[in-house]
C-alpha cells in the first residue's frame, strides 16, 4: 500500500476495480483546510481519462510493474506490433494504450510497462522526443514573420504538427511527444 506522498507521474494504481496510470498530479496545501492531491488518471484498459482528488495521507493500492524496451515493428488497423529488444518476443497492443500513436515511427524503441502479477502490458511510454521527416507542407509566405506564425505540416507517420514558416518538405524536425509540438529543425 502506498500513500498520496508516493504519487508520481507514470505510477500505476488500482482504483474503482480498474488499473489507472497517473498522467498529471498536483499537491495542494490550501491556507484553510486539509491538504489534498489533485490527479488526472488514464485507464490502461479503456484509455478513458478521469480527474480525481485524494485527501492527504489517503491509502492507494499501487500495482507492481516492470519496464521493458520494445521496438515498434508495424501497425495493422488499430493494432500495433512490438518486439522485445532482449528476447525478441513479439506482442500486439491496441491503439488506445499508446499516448501518441501518430508520432510512432517503425523501428522506434519505446518502454512498455508490464503488470508483474499477470504479465499483461499496461501502457507504452514514448521517448521524450522523436525526429520525423516532413512529407507535406505549404510553402511559407515571405514577409509574414511579424509574429510567431506557424503552418500545419504532415509528418512521415501521418501526424500533423504546427511548424514555423521556414520549414519545408523533406526537412527533419524534432517533436516533443508529450505535447506533439515542434521543438527544432534537425540538420543531418
UniProtKB/TrEMBL annotation:
HAMAP family in UniProt: EF_P
Primary role: Involved in peptide bond synthesis. Stimulates efficient translation and peptide-bond synthesis on native or reconstituted 70S ribosomes in vitro. Probably functions indirectly by altering the affinity of the ribosome for aminoacyl-tRNA, thus increasing their reactivity as acceptors for peptidyl transferase.
Gene3D superfamilies assigned to the protein according to its UniProt record, in alphabetical order: 2.30.30.30, Nucleic acid-binding proteins
NCBIfam families: efp, PRK00529.1
Domain Translation elongation factor P/YeiP central: 67-122
InterPro entries: Elong-fact-P_C (IPR015365), NA-bd_OB-fold (IPR012340), Rib_uL2_dom2 (IPR014722), Transl_elong_fac_P/YeiP (IPR020599), Transl_elong_KOW-like (IPR013185), Transl_elong_P/YeiP_cen (IPR001059), Transl_elong_P/YeiP_CS (IPR013852), Transl_elongation_fac_P (IPR011768)
Superkingdom per UniProt: Bacteria
Identification of the protein by name: Elongation factor P
GO molecular function terms listed in the Swiss-Prot or TrEMBL record: translation elongation factor activity
Family: Belongs to the elongation factor P family.
Main location: cytoplasm
Pfam families per UniProt: EFP, EFP_N, Elong-fact-P_C
Keyword DNA repair: no
Listed SMART domains: EFP (SM01185), Elong-fact-P_C (SM00841)
Sorted UniProt keywords: Cytoplasm, Elongation factor, Protein biosynthesis
Record's subcellular location: Cytoplasm
Domain Elongation factor P C-terminal: 130-185
GO biological process terms held by the UniProt record: peptide biosynthetic process
Amino acid at each position: 500500500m502506498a500513500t498520496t506522498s508516493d504519487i508520481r507521474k507514470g505510477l500505476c494504481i488500482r482504483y474503482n476495480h480498474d488499473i489507472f496510470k497517473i498522467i498529471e498530479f498536483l499537491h495542494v496545501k490550501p491556507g484553510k483546510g486539509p491538504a489534498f492531491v489533485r490527479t488526472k488518471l488514464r485507464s490502461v484498459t479503456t484509455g478513458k481519462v478521469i480527474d480525481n482528488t485524494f485527501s492527504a495521507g489517503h491509502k492507494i493500492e499501487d500495482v507492481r510493474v516492470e519496464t521493458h524496451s520494445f521496438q515498434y515493428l508495424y501497425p495493422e488497423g488499430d493494432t500495433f506490433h512490438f518486439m522485445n529488444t532482449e528476447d525478441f518476443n513479439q506482442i500486439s497492443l491496441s491503439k488506445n494504450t499508446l499516448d501518441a500513436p501518430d508520432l510512432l515511427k517503425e523501428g522506434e524503441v519505446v518502454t512498455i510497462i508490464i503488470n508483474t502479477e499477470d504479465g499483461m502490458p499496461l501502457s507504452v511510454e514514448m521517448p521524450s522526443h522523436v525526429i520525423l521527416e516532413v512529407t507535406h507542407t505549404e510553402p511559407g509566405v515571405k514577409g509574414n514573420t511579424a509574429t510567431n506564425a506557424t503552418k500545419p505540416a504532415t509528418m512521415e507517420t501521418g501526424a500533423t504538427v504546427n511548424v514555423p514558416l521556414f520549414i519545408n518538405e523533406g526537412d527533419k524536425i524534432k517533436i516533443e511527444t508529450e505535447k506533439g509540438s515542434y521543438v527544432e529543425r534537425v540538420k543531418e
